[in-house]
Amino acid sequence: MDLWDYLELAAWAASALFGLFIVIDWIRTDSTYDEEFLTSSREGELEALTEEQHRG
Amino acid sequence: MAKAEKIEHVGLARVLGPAHVWALGVGIVLVGEYMGWNFAVGKGGAYAALMACWFAGILYTCVAMIDSEVTSTVAAAGGQYTQAKHIVGPLMAFNVGLYLVFAYTMLEAANAITVGFLVDTVATMSGHQGGVDQRPFIILSIMFLAWLNYRGVLATLTFNLVITAIAFTAVVVLFLTTAGIFGAGPLRHADLLSGQAALPYGWLGVLASMHFGLWFYLGIEGTTQAAEEVRSPARALPFGTLAGVMTLAIAATLTWYVCAGLMPWEYLGQSGVPLFDAARLSGSYGLMVFLGIGTLFATLASANGCINDASRAWFAMGRDRYLPGWFGAVHPKYRTPYRSIIFLVPIALIFALGAPLDQVVTFSILSGLLEYTFMPLNIILFRRKWPLDTIKRGYEHPFHPLPAMVLLGLCGLAFFAVFLGYGTQLVAMIAFYIVVSLWFHFWRYRFVNRGAQFTMPWPKPRGY
């Protein structure tokens, strides 16, 4: 085993970690919020939304 | 569910500036200077590649000008898909959306394959025996960039800005070091480009080299995908896109000049990493390391921008129900199209791990070419339906309809060039788009959210 063999293992492990983060957060998000809310983005509504959030 | 009650809507975050738009466009493309463009040299010699570089430069300048005008008024995610939806019609929009997703996802896969190849090259150069397993590095590049894109667009494109700037600086430094400006340089254009080497396959070679000449600029049109996330679309999009195409024209010419002066065309036409090879031939270890880092950064920046763009196009199609509405979701915390990002990860992985690089690259080029062919039609219809005095544009491109005509003519040339080398793939790709068009027309269109399609506050089109 040399440095490159360890780097291969590290790359596998890091890939799994990034994948795991994405999947866990995806499941958590989908179970926390309404589907209607998550898909509420509408083209052309952005100006109004930005304005609303700016006012807090 | 409490949060959902507090805020009624969630949308993409408008946080980007012109520099991010530049980083998105140039970031996707700059890898083409580091590798790929030189296959044009193999098709017709170094001079043919230079002509292809400039013809492609004209093609993409037309693309950038047309895109800048239209997208400065259609400020929504989806880029050319959204333009087609507003200006041409649903079937064109569906096809353009698919061109975009295919072009960027294939390019992302090609970049990931290249990351694996680069790691293997460095391992071999450092004395590692037997080569490395490239798969974990290919997967890591896709997973890391997908995670970054998932977490937010500002961090994603700021990252792109930094690594793209470093990769571009590396090209400039290589030119300054080798061009002989500060003393005698190693370039030998007179020896390498004379006699038979000037145009080894004649003018047919020039035509054939157009195929890979596109590689110098392919993807710059991706800047439009940021339309819904820039703070000032009317200013940032034209500025970022036009500055991007100028940067690329400079980088492309410098790249050709250095490489054609250091390597014979027979070698340059087959090189896997021509700029890195040029740095090695310069005899400077520091330059070699810098260009090695530049190659890796350019590759990562391209894959990163591709994930950003493909997911925005997929998201926009989902939001309009051209695809299942499930894809139209936005992450409430990170404000990204997270389901579209996730969905495209396995597709990119399948192509990156299972398909040969040249096939992946060709499918990307073909999808891009189909998209460019749509643009002249788009701008002609746009100007006819909404003349200059009816809608205020952030940018008005000059000499209309000349750029549209030039673009159409150059696209025809490029299609012929691709047909010379990859005729089967071209026919297969067109057959694929015909089949999916029939599916969309006879089945999917019934689910489209027709009432919410036309969102721009424009007057009625002239003649309707």
TrEMBL record, chain A:
The chain crosses the membrane at residues 6-27. The keyword Transmembrane helix applies. Keywords: Membrane, Transmembrane, Transmembrane helix. It comes from the Bacteria. This is Cytochrome c oxidase cbb3-type subunit 4. It comes from Paracoccus laeviglucosivorans.
Automatic annotation (TrEMBL), chain B:
InterPro entries: AA-permease/SLC12A_dom, APC_superfamily. GO terms for cellular component: membrane. Keywords: Membrane, Transmembrane, Transmembrane helix. Its main location: membrane. The keyword Transmembrane helix applies. Signal peptide: none annotated. Residues 28-443 form the Amino acid permease/ SLC12A domain. It is a multi-pass membrane protein. This is Amino acid/polyamine/organocation transporter, APC superfamily. It comes from Paracoccus laeviglucosivorans.
